C-alpha cells in the first residue's frame, strides 16, 4: 500500500495546478491525525507509531516530490554531486569542548570544534580550550577568522571547491524549480505557523476536515519562576504526582513549552486558571495557553519540517542555496518581509524550542555561504534596533535569542566594515544603547541610583550591546576608505555623546554625618565604566592606524570635553595662590565639600589620544593641524585631579562608606596638563585640590593642624603621602608608549618584574595581575622566560615563577599598579633579599626611560621651587621630630623624589657631557635654604644621624653619595672645559670631602659588620624555620613512612606492661584487664574498596547473614583510628558535652556541623579526626592465658590433627546437647560467668559499645546488643581491616611488618585483641553456634544446614572467625593454654588447605579470561607458581593476624621490603614451605569440599567466580588529555530524559560510570529521601562513599553519606603546573599521574571521609552545601 501510495501523492502534487493548495490539503488532512494525539505521557508504543506515520505520510511524499524517485537513492545521488561548503559550521552543543588558538585566531571568538582542531596546525600552538555554552559554530574554513592555518585537514579546499560556482548538474537541473517551489511552500507554512500567536485558528487552507473539542493546556517557560514554584503549582493545577510535575517542569525548561493537560476546552481552561491564579501573587503569572490540538499538531510538524529542510540541504549545496534564496526573498509586503525577516522579527514571541530549531537552520543554510551570510547580515543590521528592543522586553537568556547571532556576523572583519559603511552599524549600536538608558539627571547624564529591580534586569540585558560594539571594533582596519572614515567618525560622535552622558555621572558629596542610611547605587555606573574601558582602548587603536582619523578624533574629543567643562568654574570663587615665590590664579573648590564624580570617560579617551599624538609624532610633524592651543591645561587636569583627591581622601578615611572601593588610577590627563603648565603652577593647584596648600604655605596653619584633633592630623598626613605619591607617578611613570620612549614589550616586562618582586607567583596569578588586550592576551609568554625561572610543582601546590636576581635592580617601590598592601609586601621582600646578599637596604628608584618630546617638560617638576619647598618642609618636620606631624612613609616618598631628581641629573650629565645641562638639582638642594635649618642636603645630613630613622639610613646614605658623585661629574666636565676658577676653595672642599669620606668609610665598615652578624642570625633563624616547616608540612603519609623504625621498637616492647596517657585528663594508666577502660577514638565505615563485584545488591539488613564472607568481598566494614587514647569515662563525658553543644547550636541557628552527632560521630579531641566510636584497649595477654608464639614448632605436647579433631567433635557434641537442654526451657547460662570474665565491667561496657557500633554501621540497623550477629560483625571488621592493610602494604611494596604508621599499628593490635575478647560479652550459646557452623564449613556435617561451599567463602574471614570463636569453646575446657595454640595451628592448616583447593578449582576454569592463567597450566612448576601467587595474600594477612593476636615478634626477614619472603612467612606460620605437603595429609577432606553441590553450580556459571590472587582495585584509567573527557561528557546524555544533554556530567572514579549530576531529572529516592545521581550512585558503588570527577568543572568531588562532601583538586594540570578548577583559563590540561595516585591512595586507605571532615572543619561554607543533591 505504502509503495503505491507515496509516489501517487507525489505525482498528484506534481500534476496539480496549485501545488501549495494541494500540499496544504494533504497536511490539513493528515497532520492532526498523526501528530499530537492525546496526552503526551502515554506509552512508548504509540510514540513509535506516531513517528512511523509521520515519516511515511508526511515526509516521504515531500521527498518524493523533490527527488522524483526513491528518497534514499535520490539523496545518495545528490550527495555525490554535493560540493560542501569549506566552512565546517559544526554547531556546538552545550558543554562541548571548543578550541581557539592564542597565536592565530583573529579574535577570541574564533573557535574550532574538536575534530577540526585535531586536524589543524593549531594543536601544536598555544591553544585555549573552553566548553561551549551552546549555540555558536566552528569557524574552521573561514579565512578571516585565522591569521594562519584556517583549514583543518578535512576542510582544506580541493579543486572541486575552487571551481567557478556551477549550476546544478543536468540531471538535477529540473530539480531547481521543484526545490524552489517545495521550499517556498514548506518554509512559508512553517513560518506562518510559528509566528502566528493564534490559539484556535489555523492559516487558510489548513483547517482540519473535522474539528473536535480537543485541546492542550500549554505551559510556557519563563525566567521568573523557579523550578520549585512550577512543580508545586502543577501538582495543584493538573493533579499529577510530584514525579510527573518534575518531568513537566524539566521539559518546559528545556523546550520552552509543554502541554500539561489534554482534554476538552473546559478541562484545559480550568487548569489554566489554577496555574495563573497560583503564580500571579508575587510576579507576573506563568504563561499558559489553551490551544486547539490541530494548532499544536501543525506547529509540531512545522518544527519537524524545518529540521527536515536542514537535513536535506546537507546533501546538496545547490539545494542549500535555493533555500537561502527562498528565505531571503522579499514577500509581497516589500521591505523586511522575507520569511527570514519574519522569523527574526517574531523571535521573542516564539518559545525556546522553536527558536533553537530555526536558529540551527539559519546556521546550516545562510551562515554557511558568504554571499547569503552577507545579505542576512544586512537584514540583521537593518532590523538591529528592533531586534534588540524585542530582546529587552523578552525575559529569555541571550543564547536563545536571535540577537546572539551577532557574534557570527560582526566578528568577520570584512562584514563588520561593510555593515559599518553601508548600514552605519557602529552608530546604530551606540544610539540603540543610549536610547535604552533613559534615566537622566538634569544635565542629561545617566542616573542609576533609582533603578528598580526591573530596570536593573534590563540594564543587565542592555549591556550585551556593548559586547556587539566590541565585536565590530575587535579588529582594526589595515586600510581605510573615505567612506569608512566618515562612518567611523560618525560613530565616534555617537560614542562621544554616550561618554558625555557618563562624564561626571553619579557625583557624590561627602557625608559628614555619622550614619548613612542608604548606600547609593554605584555599582551599575561602575560596571558600565569598566565595560566601556575596553571600547575606549579599541577606539584608540583604530585611531592609531590613520592620521586623519586621529586628528579628527582628537578635535572631536577636545570639543566634547570643553562642552562638559563649560560652566565648570561657574559660581566658584577665583583665588590667587602664591608659594615659594610663584603665583597662580585658580578658584576655590574642595573635594571634601563639593560634588565630585569618578566617571571621566571623555578625559580618559582624550588622554589616550594625546599619548597617540606623541607616539605617532604627529604633534611635532603637523602641529598646525592640531588644536593644541585650545587646550587649557588647568581645565585638563581639574577633573582627574579631583577624582584622585577623592581616592586619597577615601584612603585617609574621610569617606566612611561601605563598599566604596576605587581603583587607584592615574589619568594620563595629568601628564598632558602638567607637561603643558608651569610646574610651579601645577603643583600649587595640586596642593590646593588636596586641601593642603595652607599647610605648606604657612607655619601657623600647620601648627594649628598639629594641635587639632588626632583624626584630622592623621587625615592630613595620609593626604600628604598620597599627594607625594601622585607627584612620583606624574614624573616617574613613563612605561606607556607615547609618554616614555618604550615599547609595549617593556610595559609587560615591567609589570611582571614588579609582580614577582612581591613573591614567586603561579602563571594564573600573573595573568590575573596583568592587563589583557582585546584578544585576551597579556603578552606574558614573550617575556616571562627572560625575567623569571620556573619551579615545577610537587604533588601538592602549583608551579611558580621566580624573578631572576639580575632583574632586582629594576624594582620600583612606587610602581603604579601596587596597592598599599602589595607595596609593603614587596618592600619587605626586597629588603630581605638585599640583606641576605649582604647589600645595603636602600631601595632607590630604577633608571626611568626617557620621556617623549611632547611630555619632555615633565622632568622640570622635579626641580621646581614649589616641590623643593615641599621636600624641605617634610625633611624639616622629620628633623624636628616632634610628635605626630609627619610620618615615615611621607619621608620615604620625599627621599624617593630626591633620588629620582638626582638620577635625572646624572643621566642628563652622562648623555650630554659637552652641553650645559640645565637640570641642576644638586645646585638647588645645596645652595638654597627653603627652611631656617638650612638646605635640603644639610637637612639630609642631619637626618642621617637621627637614631629614629634607622630604616631610611641606607637610602639617605645613597642620596648623599649620589650628590657627591654628581658633583664630581660636574667638576670633571667643568675642568675639561674651563680652567678651575678657584683652586684654593676647591682644595678646601677636597679636604672636607676627604674627612667626610673617611667618616663614611668607618661608618660603612661598622654597618657591614653589623649586617654580617644580622645576616648570620637571620640565616640561622631561617634554617630553623625551614627545618620545622618541613616537619609541619610533611603530609600524614610521609610521617607515616618515617615511623617504621619506631614500630620495631614497639614490637620489642610487646612483652612489657603497657602504660598509656589519656589525652583528655593527661593521667597515665596501665592497660590491664581489671582496671578502668582505656579507649582509642575510631571510625567504622562500610567499604567496597576491595570489592570484586560492584553489582552486588545488598540484601535486606534484617535478613542479612554475615557469618560467611563471599570471596568477592563486595561489602566490608573498615575500622580506622587516629591512635589517640582516652579513658572511657573521659571520652563519655567529652561526647556528652559534644551532644549538648549540638543541641544548643540547633536551637540557636539551623546550621550544620561537619559531623553527625546523632549518629554517634564526633571529632577526636586532639587531632579533630572524624570518629564514630571507640575501641577498647585490652592487655597484651589476658591474665588467664600465657603467651605462645605461633612460630614455635609443633612440639610433642601438641595433639595431632586427628586427636584435636576428635576432641573438638566431642566438644561440639556436648555443646549441641547443652543447647538443646537450654531450648528445652532450663535456665540458660547465657553469658560467661562474672568470676570467669577476665575484664572489668567498664572494659566490658566498652567492648559492647564497639561491637554494637560495628553492627550498627555494618548492617545499618538500630543497635541491638542481643542480636546474634553482633560478634560476627566485630570479627568481620577485624578480618576486613587486616585484609585491606595487607593489600596496601603489597601495593606500596612495603615490608609486611614494621612499616605501618603507629596509629595503624595501634589500631590493628587493639582491634585484633578486641575481636578475640568480644565473645566475653555475647551470649555463649550464640558464639558456640557460630563456631559449630564455621567448623562445619571445614568438616561438612549433615546435622548442620546451609553450609556454603568453599567457593563461596573468603578463607581469611573464615580463619579469623573460627580462631576467634574457638576461644569461647575452649573456655569450657580448662586444660591449658597450649591447646589454644595448637588449635589455632590446626585451624590455620585446615583453612590453608581449603584455600589451596579453592585456588586450584578456580584457576582451571575460564583460563581465557584471566591473564594470570592465560597459559595452560602445563607444567607442575607453573602450577606451583600460580598457587603460590594465589595464596600469598592469604598467608600475609594470616601472619598479620596472628602477630597482633599473640603479640609475637615478627621474623627479621619480614621487616624489610622486597620479594622472596616465602620461607620466612611459612615458617612464621608453622607451615611447610612446600604447602602441597599440608595438602597431601588432608586429602580425605577434598571429597566433601569438592562434592558440595554449590561447587559444580558455581563453576558452571551459576555464580560469581573469584580468582586468586584477587587483584587490588584501582581507580579507573583517565585519559592523558583532558579534552578527551570533555568530549566524552558532551556526548553523554541524561539516562532519564530521553537523549537530553546532561548539565553536570560527572564521572565515578571508582567504576567509570558517567552520571547526570545536580539535576532534577536524575534524582532518586534513597532511604526515603530524594538525592542526586552522585549520592545515589555512592550507595550502590561505594557503600556511601564516592569519588567523582565533575567534568565541566574539572574538579574532584568526594561524597560520604548524604550530608558530607568536599571538593578536591583534580589530577589534571596545565603546562604551568596549575589546576584549572571551573575551566576558567582554558589552558590545555594533562593528567598528572602522581596526583592521581595520591587520590587513589586516599581511597584505598579509606581516608575519603576523613579528608571531607577536615575540609569541612577548615571551610564552614562547605558544610552548608546540599551535597545530597549533587
Ligand atoms: Zn569544525
Ligand atoms: Zn575543519
Ligand atoms: Zn595557531
Ligand atoms: Zn582521662
Ligand atoms: Zn586523634
Ligand atoms: Zn561508581
Ligand atoms: Zn538526568
Automatic annotation (TrEMBL):
Top-rank EC class of the record's enzyme: transferase
Keyword Acetylation: yes
Residue ranges of the region described as Disordered: 826-845, 976-999
Domain annotation UBR-type: ranges: 86-157
Biased segments, Basic and acidic residues type: 826-840, 986-999
A Gene Ontology biological process term: ubiquitin-dependent protein catabolic process via the N-end rule pathway
Reaction it catalyzes: S-ubiquitinyl-[E2 ubiquitin-conjugating enzyme]-L-cysteine + [acceptor protein]-L-lysine = [E2 ubiquitin-conjugating enzyme]-L-cysteine + N(6)-ubiquitinyl-[acceptor protein]-L-lysine
Zinc finger (UBR-type): 86-157
Pfam families, per database record: ClpS, PRT6_C, WHD_UBR1, zf-UBR
Any one of the GO CC terms: cytoplasm
Single GO MF descriptor: ubiquitin protein ligase activity
Keywords assigned by UniProt, alphabetized: Acetylation, Chromosome, Coiled coil, Isopeptide bond, Metal-binding, Nucleus, Phosphoprotein, Transferase, Ubl conjugation, Ubl conjugation pathway, Zinc, Zinc-finger
Cellular compartment(s): Chromosome; Nucleus
UniProt xrefs under PANTHER family: E3 UBIQUITIN-PROTEIN LIGASE UBR2, UBIQUITIN LIGASE E3 ALPHA-RELATED
Function field: Ubiquitin ligase protein which is a component of the N-end rule pathway. Recognizes and binds to proteins bearing specific N-terminal residues that are destabilizing according to the N-end rule, leading to their ubiquitination and subsequent degradation.
Name recorded for this polypeptide: E3 ubiquitin-protein ligase
Natural source organism: Scophthalmus maximus (Turbot)
Lineage: Eukaryota, Metazoa, Chordata, Craniata, Vertebrata
